[in-house]
Amino acid sequence: MGQNGREDAQTSAGFFDPYQNCWRVRQADRLALVVDGEDYFAALRQIVSQAQHELLLIGWDFDFEIEMLPGESDGDGNAPDGLPNHVGAFLQAAVDQSPNLNLYILKWNGAVVVAPGRLLSSAAVYVFSHERIHFALDGHHPFGACHHQKIIVADNSFAFCGGIDVTENRWDTAQHLPGDTRRVGKDGALLGPWHDATTALAGPVAESLGELARARWFRATGETLTPPGDVAHDIWPESLAIDATQIDVAIARTEPPYDGSPLINEIECLFLDSIRMARDTIYIESQYFTTQTICDALYDRLSEDHPPEVIIVNPEAALSGFEDQSMHVLRGRAIDRLQVADHSGRFRIYSPVNSADEPIYVHAKIMIVDDTVLHIGSSNLDDRSMGFDTECDVAIHGHSELISSFREKLLSEHLGVSRLLLRETLGREGSVIATIERLNALKGRSLKPIQLLPETWVGKVLADTRLMDPRYVARESSNAGKGLRPRHIAVAAAGIAAGYLAVKLWKRWNRK
User: How far is residue 422 from each of residues 64, 362, 405, 428, 442, measured CA to CA in Å?
Assistant: First the structure.
């Protein structure tokens, strides 16, 4: 798809408004739009292996025990590139082979509480890893919030930014095959199909993402990291095709008020500006659909005489019953409200299934407006992502061929058809909704309309209180950072785990 994007730079500058709907706009010398974990993890290995000076891994979670290339380990546990397949051992090997490489891993402190089974591996990395591997837990956020950015920067010149975490249950192919034995948990159980997305970026925009990542490290640890100087070697994963060159990319953030800093809600403003400017189609993929401000904006657009089509792709259900009761009750209320406004039949919300009719979990965070605006990032369409959690998205504007082609790629994957058939059907139907419904009639994969479930009393209480989906409010700012914090729990848990590991090693040593 590769295209030169400089002809749209002036238009992009007019739409993006730094410190309103984005942080800054920087050029990407090369850009790739990455869909699903198979391509991402393969590209990530290549980037880690190429880095020579600095690797910044900023994320919601890191699981050091998972295989990066499932099913490809040899008898020694190595991937086809000759390095260990498991994340932790691979990172150790990458540092060993690059004498000047420093690796910084910043993980949300609450992840060790949400997923305690990964606490020991995190503690092991912290206590026993290479001296040039630096690990920290991030607790610099209001109580109950989380650090949700997913950014990886190599040598200040290449970055991934999107929605894919380096953790369990993120790897899958674009086919989302039923019963794929490579899609397996550490306990040996088969995992369900998983749909995700991120971006690969090289050039000045990666430099800015490096600045953002180092700022996050400083706030979490108090340590100032000096960026590496000019990197002589070229960094790009050979497995990724380049989708665009010399293209302006906006970086947008969510940061809640904390320690006297004001709310940053650039992502929310960018979503709202994008919805307001839509002419024909608003296409969204998100893990959730509960954001009050976004739903209000969509309600206003659907109430117009000639509204755009609004297509939402969500998972059928949440990952746990508790989460489903809370978040999907809120989603049901949003759907009910938008259906009231939808006097022209222009609103649909779907969930993808594979060829065996199994639900595919949607973890991607994407918005495409017409063939004009594309957002990809870590932010969900929930109130947390608009003003409570820490998020980072990237966006492009005005590159119609690139944007429309990417929407074709997503829809053809969900519908299990060729991009040519999708394009031809869209040309005949003149409508994305009509195209989806026409191709849904074919046997195989499809996008199924989401069916609303009745509210239980538990779901009603959780939804009314927005326990799982809070929005930071000004009156809380005076208490930010005070009292019992998730980091206190995480540090205590990490200490216990480190002690446990030390005792095990001591006993093993004494037995020798």
Answer: 39, 21, 11, 10, 12
CATH number for the domain harbouring residue 150: 3.30.870.10
CA distances from residue 170 to 35, 43, 476 in whole angstroms, order as listed? 11, 14, 34
- The residue whose two tokens read 């990291």 is 225
Residues 324 and 354 in one domain: yes
β partners of residue 4:
245
> What are the pLDDT digits (tens) for 430-469?
999 999 999 998 888 999 999 888 888 888 898 888 888 8
Amino acid 211 reads E
Tokens 């307001």 label which residue? Answer: 276
Pair 141, 179 in one domain? yes
Task: Give the C-alpha separation, 155 to 210, whole Å.
Answer: 9
Residue 491 is assigned to a structural domain of this protein: no
Look up the domain containing 179 and give its range. 22-249
Task: Return the residue matching tokens 């049901």.
Answer: 332
253: enclosing H helix or E strand: strand 244-255
Show the tokens assigned to 301. Answer: 């657009």
**Angstrom distances, CA of residue 349 to CA of 198, 289, 366, 373:** 22, 10, 14, 20
pTM for the predicted model, two decimal places:
0.89
pLDDT in tens, 372-398: 999 999 999 999 999 999 999 999 999
State how far the alpha carbon of 192 is from the alpha carbons of 182, 346, 355, in Å: 11, 31, 13
- Residues 205, 206, 207, 211, CA torsion sign: positive
